[in-house]
Design goal:
Elements: E1 7-9, E2 25-27, H1 49-55, H2 78-92, E3 103-106, E4 118-119, E5 140-145, H3 149-159, E6 164-165, E7 171-173, E8 186-189, H4 194-197, E9 208-209, H5 211-227, E10 230-238, E11 246-252, H6 255-264, H7 270-274, E12 281-286, E13 303-307, E14 312-316, H8 322-335, E15 342-345, E16 347-350, E17 356-360, H9 367-371, E18 377-380, E19 383-386, E20 391-393, E21 397-401, H10 411-416, E22 422-424, E23 427-428, E24 435-436, E25 447-451, E26 463-464, E27 467-474, E28 484-487, H11 489-498, E29 500-503, E30 506-507, E31 510-511, E32 515-518, H12 531-545, E33 548-553, E34 556-557, E35 565-566, H13 569-581, E36 589-591, E37 598-600, H14 620-642, H15 651-658
Parallel strand pairs: 3-5, 5-10, 7-22, 8-9, 8-13, 11-12, 12-14, 17-27, 27-33
Antiparallel strand pairs: 1-2, 3-4, 6-7, 10-11, 13-14, 15-19, 16-17, 16-18, 19-20, 20-26, 21-25, 22-25, 23-24, 28-33, 29-32, 30-31, 34-35, 36-37
Helix pairs in contact: 3-6, 11-12, 11-15
């Protein structure tokens, strides 16, 4: 028996015996009461479960010093900083029919705490009548400001039906009824400035609306957002070039939209966020709420509206997140050329020696595949600027197509689908949560949005020197364009403005003929100015910095689709390698008829007979007829551009037209 009065095992020789011959436990009363506890760790500080939960999280401490004055290393108080941020957000959410912005407070309404900082601000009165009081003025709008991916996961899983964590850690979500962009519902305010600046009319993506209608839709969006208990606010940047970056604010109602833009825009450091100030451009995403289809200029319950004078964008009636990404790209297509900076819808990579290449191409041409090269650094996959100092990526992330994605074909994209990645409209196993990328049940336009640093060979920061090569990709299903041709400056402008590829249409009745598709500047849906203005800037920069233009056909050879065969990817990669190395500049060239393209006579690793497409067609007459047909399609498409003068006279316009097909 233990001397301390607790318990002991009795001695087997003379003590009591329990069942099965085991020693019997004997107990005595304690001499002094003691607390029994686990001595392996120190006891926790919390006295209640709420206190324990409060110990789980620590607050982020801002560290930015004030940049001038004697107290250069004094920090701004957290309360003052929070008030400044809230006042700025309240101003963004201000209705034009009331004297003040809404009362805003930081934090999740589900976690209400005492002493929250609130703000509302007065704003300049517009021409609309003043309403001094409303229900929305009596409530607080909770602001979820620049939440982390983990916090946004929690919000999506808790409150947004259709949000699930997949087996790889990505979050799968649904974009609602719209699973793609709605270009017919996009509007741009036509005012005194934009009337002369922007490209309007036939072929243009810019459909006009007036200022008043924009303000009606803005009011509808802002009132909807202010009616909610909480809204998400992202303050982020566009353009990795620090001299030309744009501050953007995105106000949205869904965690999905906030996380998507967290990935797609450039993420500010805590120090940059403290001094963010007033944004250069603001998006009001009220996509869950429809526009009024009886409002002037509206053609449906969806409307995506740009006001370049107010630097604002309004989204109503669509939850498809790509509208925000491409809306901002349109804004950059307007703002950057005003600074003599060329905005480009292209991929961009850089060799280990610092040689940069731009890749232009429509869907299905291989732009993503060919610009993603394990021997080269990825600067970006979609949107870039060419400045006086070099190239810079506009975005902070990638937006990749997922349909039929496989680890073998696209290992970098496959491996990027992990925690923090947004998967749009994919289908997954209800038990294992493994995604089936071949399933088109929701849409064929399934997408993944992830930060660019998820790609192993991404160059951070995403900037590089001036490009050496400008590669225009076309998937020619007619089979008459050569696998590669070297372009003159005028030819580069012609093919850049044309933006050609060919779509292949198959039906149950059999194979139909290829359909030529033209998209000016390889991104007609997003450009704001006339295509010739972007082309002139491209030619000027190429000439100044000694870049070479190339037209690469990743489509058919030996006949059109149905009779010929697709040019092997291995051959195309050899061609791209020869462009990067510079060896393709040091070979002999011959000229093709009709299009007048310079084609090399030999490339290492590529059969010489396929370099001139006429050699691969057994029926020479069919080749000539198809070549003339495609030439005619180019001519017909280019007619809309010939009336636009470049420069003081028509000389340059005539030179570009002459660089097209002649027959």
């Amino acid at each position: 028996m233990a001397e301390n009065g607790e318990f002991s095992f009795a001695n087997n020789e003379g003590g009591a015996v329990g069942r099965n011959g085991l020693s019997k436990i004997q107990t005595n009363k304690n001499k002094a009461p003691e607390v029994c506890h686990d001595d392996s760790t120190a006891p926790i500080k919390a006295q209640t479960i709420d206190e324990l939960h409060s110990l789980q999280k620590k607050r982020s401490a801002p560290t930015t010093p004030i940049s001038n004055g004697p107290a250069a290393f004094a920090t701004i108080s957290e309360e003052d900083r929070s008030k400044q941020q809230l006042q700025s957000i309240s101003a963004s959410l201000a209705s034009l029919t009331r004297e003040t912005g809404p009362k805003v407070v930081k934090g999740d309404p589900a976690r209400k705490t005492e002493g929250q900082t609130t703000a509302h601000v007065s704003h300049a009165q517009h021409y609309t009548p003043t309403l001094n009081i409303s229900d929305s003025a009596l409530k607080f709008t909770h602001i979820l400001y620049n939440l982390s991916p983990a916090e946004l996961y929690e919000q999506a899983i808790k409150y947004e039906k259709g949000s699930f964590i997949t087996s790889t850690g990505a979050i799968a979500t649904l974009s609602g009824a719209k699973t793609g962009r709605a270009p017919r519902d996009k509007r741009v305010v036509k005012d005194e400035t934009t009337e002369d600046d922007l490209w309007w009319g036939k072929g243009s993506p810019n459909i006009e609306m007036d200022e008043h209608t924009f303000l009606v839709n803005r009011e509808r969006a802002v009132d909807y957002l202010n009616s909610l208990d909480k809204v998400f606010v992202n303050d982020q940047f566009l353009n990795w070039d620090p001299e030309n970056r744009i501050k953007v604010r995105i106000v949205s109602a869904r965690a999905y939209h906030s996380l998507f833009m967290h990935n797609m825009c450039i993420r500010p450091t805590p120090e940059e966020l403290e001094n963010f100030g007033t944004p250069d451009f603001t998006i009001y995403n009220a996509g869950q709420f429809p526009c009024n289809r009886y409002t002037h200029y509206m053609t449906s319950s969806t409307s995506i509206d740009l006001n370049l004078a107010r630097r604002e964008m309004v989204i109503l009636g669509t939850q498809y997140a790509g509208e925000m990404k491409k809306g901002l790209f349109s804004v950059m297509h307007y703002l950057m050329p005003k600074r003599r900076i060329l905005s480009l819808h292209s991929g961009c990579n850089m060799g280990k020696e610092g040689d940069v290449a731009l890749f232009f191409g429509l869907s299905g041409t291989g732009k993503t595949t060919l610009s993603t090269d394990h021997n080269r650094y990825l600067i970006g996959d979609d949107e870039h600027c060419w400045t006086e100092t070099g190239v810079s990526n506009i975005e902070g992330g990638c937006y990749a197509k997922c349909i039929d994605l496989s680890r073998e074909k696209e290992p970098d994209i496959w491996n990027a689908i992990k925690f923090g990645t947004v998967l749009e409209n994919v289908v997954f196993d209800e038990h294992t949560r493994e995604v089936d990328y071949s399933d088109k049940s929701v849409t064929e336009n399934t997408r993944a949005s992830y930060p660019i640093e998820y790609i192993p060979n991404a160059k951070i920061p995403c900037v590089g020197p001036h490009p050496k090569n400008v590669i225009l990709l076309a998937c020619d299903a007619f089979g008459v364009l050569p696998p590669v041709s070297k372009l003159s400056l005028a030819q580069t402008m012609y093919h850049f403005i044309s933006g050609y590829t060919a779509l292949v249409a198959g039906t149950e009745d059999g194979i139909k003929e290829p359909t030529a598709t033209f998209s000016a500047c390889f991104g007609a849906a997003f450009i704001m100015l006339h295509p010739t203005r972007y082309a002139a800037m491209l030619a000027e920069k190429m000439q100044k910095h000694g870049a070479t233009g190339w037209l690469v056909n990743t489509g058919w050879s030996g006949g059109s689709y149905g009779s010929g065969s697709r040019i092997k990817l291995a051959y195309t990669r050899k061609i791209i390698d020869a462009i990067h190395s510079g060896s393709l500049l040091n070979t002999n060239y011959t000229k093709t008829e009709v299009f007048g393209l310079e084609i090399p006579t030999e490339i290492e690793g590529v059969p010489s007979e396929i370099l001139d497409p006429v050699n691969t067609w057994s029926d020479k007459k069919a080749y000539k007829d198809t070549l003339l047909k495609l030439g005619g399609l180019f001519k017909s498409n280019f007619e809309v551009f010939t009336s636009h003068k470049i420069g003081k006279d028509d000389n340059l316009t005539e030179e570009i037209v002459a660089a097209g097909p002649i027959f």
